[in-house]
Amino acid sequence: MLGALVIVLFAGAAPRSEDPDWPCQQRLVSHLTPATYWNGPLDEQGNWQADPEIAELVHRLAPRRVKTEEGLAAIMNFAKTTSEDRPHRLALAFRGLLEETDRERAGLIEQLRQMGRRQRELADLVARLADELAAIAPDTTGEDAEKRVDLKQRHDFTARNFEEIQQTIRYACETPVALDARLGVWTRALQQAAIAAAPG
Fold first, then answer.
1. Which residue pairs, CB below 8 angstroms and at least 24 apart, start in 73-76?
2. What would the pLDDT profile of 151-161 be if each residue is shown by its tens digit?
C-alpha cells in the first residue's frame, strides 16, 4: 500500500516541464532575461564589474541569504549617492544583479534536477519492491517468509526515504521563485530611480 502511495505522490508532483528530472510544480525557467524585469529599452553598454561601487553592491546583494528589504535599502542608498551618469549606472547595477541572481539560480536548479532524478529512481525501486512483496503470500513460511520480511523492510525504508526527500524538494522548489520575486522588487526600485534621474 505504501508503495502505491509513493507512486501516487510522485505522479501528483509531476513536473510542469519537458525535463523529466525537474521535480517542482513551478514552471522551469532555466535562465532569466532582462526583458522579463526591465520595462522599456535597457542600456547594454558598459561592464558592471568594471565599476567598483556597482560590483560591490551586486556582490553584496546577490547571495540568497540577503533579504529583500536589506537589498532595497542598499539600492536606495546607492541611487542617492551615485551622481555621475546615474541612469546608466543604475542600469548597470540591474544587469549585475540579473547575472548574479541567474548564476545563483542555476546552481539551485541543478541541485533540484539531481534530487528529481534521485526521486524517480527511488519511485521505481519502491514499485519494484512492492511487486516482489505482492508475489509472496503474507502467510508464507520458511525461506519465503524471511525473504518477505527483508523485502518489507527494504520497501518501507525506501518509501520513507522518498517521502523525506519529497518534503525537502517542496521547500527547495520555493527558493528560485523567491529569488525571482526579490529581483523583481529590486529591479522596480532601480528602474524608478533611473527614470527619476533621467534628464528631461
1. 75/186, 75/189, 75/190, 75/193, 76/189, 76/193
2. 999 999 999 99
